[in-house]
Amino acid sequence: MVKLLIMAIETEKITLNLGPVDLGQVDLLVQEGFYSTRTDFLRTAIRNQLLVHADVLKQAAVRKTLVLGLQRFTRKDLEAVQAAGQKLRIRVLGLATIDEDVSPELAMATIDEIYVLGAFHASAGVKRALASRLQ
């Protein structure tokens, strides 16, 4: 039997307050068929601004020594770090994930610092244990 693992693209929900005129203009563009939904408009606007500032973002990521994209840590990864007597400084622009089977004790023993611009996913216990190390 072949088992396929398909990872959905993860998104984070944000809340945005707009004035009634701006919101009305967005709704008009949706109504006129330029965008399928308000969300489609906002995603497009955000992506366009990120493209405008792409060079600045790249330079800042390099300057701050950030991993760009997804960085995942498994129990096996952290056990190897622990066996080597090392500790991690996790610095991510995007998504940092610590697998659900990682214990809070293992996370504490192997992670010195976590700095994430974007999203950080881990069990509630790991997040509590690392709270003082989150920047």
UniProtKB/TrEMBL annotation:
Q: Which organism is it from?
A: Pedosphaera parvula (strain Ellin514)
Record-linked InterPro entries: RHH_8 (IPR041088), Ribbon_hlx_hlx (IPR010985)
Alphabetized CDD domains for the sequence? RHH_NikR_HicB-like (cd22231)
Superkingdom to which the source organism belongs: Bacteria
Which parts pass through the membrane? none
Listed name of the protein? Transcriptional regulator, CopG/Arc/MetJ family
Task: Please provide the Gene Ontology terms (biological process) for this protein.
Answer: regulation of DNA-templated transcription
